[in-house]
Amino acid sequence: MRENKNSLQALILTGLFAAIIYLGIWVLRIPVPAMVGRPFIHFGNTLTAVAILILGYRNGMLAGIIGLGGFDILNGYAATSWLTMLEVFVVASIISIVYKGMNYQDSKANIIIIGIIAGITKIGTTYLVSIVEALIIGTSLKVAYIASFMSLPATVVNSISTAICTPLLYFAFTKAGKKLLRIN
Fold this sequence. Notes:
Strand content: under 5%
Oligomer: single chain
Number of helices: 7
């Protein structure tokens, strides 16, 4: 999909992944108490990482922005949805750079490494986003740092699930995709 990013098939898969990402958040959403924001445990980040690996940088990022950003806009997080979309951009950029550095070799070790990197990146971006959210509501910078750090438990759980589930879902989706494409 990385080569034919403007093909009808790539565009349909981008939309399909956006819907899957949205549903991955909407169906399984476990709220976690936090000092900043309203975090919850979900599979949207994992599915976004898989979309980036399968569809490539641009289409995977678009699927993540539409799925995660669309969820935020439609479910009470519209004021900070732009931060979520910015996070997707950063995660997509890092995953794509690492995967390109691996010459797009989808060995188990490479995909596991990418899953771990995606999880770690998400921890960093969410921490920064929480600081921005705290500053937006008027807290001081020092309080924002501390409150954002104290709000990381949901992100850590999401990041661990991203590290574990990204390789599993990537290989399941690619295997299913190969079977479906042989039907032609």
